[in-house]
Amino acid sequence: MMAIAILAAFWLFLRSTAIGLWIRCVAQSPTLAKASGVPVERVYLIIVVLSAAFAALAGVLVAPMTTISYQMGLSVLGPAFIVVVVGGLGSLGGAVAAAVIMGVARGVFSVFLPPTYAEVCAIALFLPFLYFRPNGIFRGRA
């Protein structure tokens, strides 16, 4: 639920604030945004600060559920990379859809299979997406 609330808040931030409009403009074309008067360097700084804030928030939310280890991100990094690629680079809706599919697949497979096999099967489920939809789940504008 927390992830859905954070995602909804960020979506509202991007859609309903001037800074969100700047971020979307710079993402589409930094040169055109700069020509339109958008402070591109300031937007890049805002993006870095937002990225750090989201990373810190993720750490705060994950810390109570796991032990600290130098390899603690590896179990999340692989599936996250697959979700981003299958969802389509630059497509927030595609990434959300791919994340939901990945989560449901991992949950369903873990009921019937040992954890390692469930993880492999959930990842293997995305291979057809990579072959038949190399630009992401949703076609059209990212």
Automatic annotation (TrEMBL):
GO terms for molecular function: transmembrane transporter activity. It is found in: Cell membrane. GO terms for biological process: amino acid transport. The chain crosses the membrane at residues 42-64, 76-105, 111-132. One of its GO terms (cellular component) is plasma membrane. Keywords: Amino-acid transport, Cell membrane, Membrane, Transmembrane, Transmembrane helix, Transport. The keyword Cell membrane applies. InterPro entries: ABC_transp_permease, BCAA_transport_permease. Pfam families: BPD_transp_2. The keyword Signal does not apply. CDD domains: TM_PBP1_LivH_like (cd06582). It is a multi-pass membrane protein. Signal peptide: none annotated. Belongs to the binding-protein-dependent transport system permease family. LivHM subfamily. This is Branched-subunit amino acid transport system permease. It comes from Aquamicrobium defluvii. The lineage of its organism: Bacteria, Pseudomonadati, Pseudomonadota, Alphaproteobacteria, Hyphomicrobiales.
